[in-house]
């Protein structure tokens, strides 16, 4: 069974997600931005969601974690919760 570990930053607007993604691209720390800006309780842990299997997260989130490149920051990804920046830490 495939498992993955990911972290994310959840914000209310696409613009804010895009702005944070730009900051990360310029060298800002993903975990620090998650602590400051993420609306998800995981923000306190730098956005870390731990390990999970396919189907445990909403589909648009799952699609990124289980199909896109590992260690890259993907997004903004829209779900019913808001806009996510997602980084898959590992997948096996």
From TrEMBL:
The keyword Isomerase applies. Its main location: cytoplasm. It comes from the Bacteria. It catalyses: [protein]-peptidylproline (omega=180) = [protein]-peptidylproline (omega=0). It is an enzyme of class 5 (isomerase). This is Peptidyl-prolyl cis-trans isomerase C. Its EC number is 5.2.1.8. Residues 1-90 form the PpiC domain. PPIases accelerate the folding of proteins. It prefers amino acid residues with hydrophobic side chains like leucine and phenylalanine in the P1 position of the peptides substrates. Keywords: Cytoplasm, Isomerase, Rotamase. PANTHER family: PEPTIDYL-PROLYL CIS-TRANS ISOMERASE (PTHR43629), PEPTIDYL-PROLYL CIS-TRANS ISOMERASE C (PTHR43629:SF3). It is found in: Cytoplasm. Pfam families: Rotamase. GO terms for molecular function: peptidyl-prolyl cis-trans isomerase activity.
């Amino acid at each position: 069974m495939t498992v993955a570990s990911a972290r994310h930053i959840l914000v209310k607007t696409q613009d804010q997600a895009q702005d944070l993604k730009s900051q990360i691209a310029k060298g800002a720390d993903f975990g620090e931005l998650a602590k400051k800006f993420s609306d998800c309780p995981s923000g306190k842990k730098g956005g870390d969601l731990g390990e999970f299997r396919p189907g445990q997260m909403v589909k648009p989130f799952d699609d990124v974690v289980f199909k896109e490149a590992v260690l890259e920051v993907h997004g903004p990804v829209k779900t019913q919760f808001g806009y996510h920046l997602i980084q898959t830490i590992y997948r096996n």
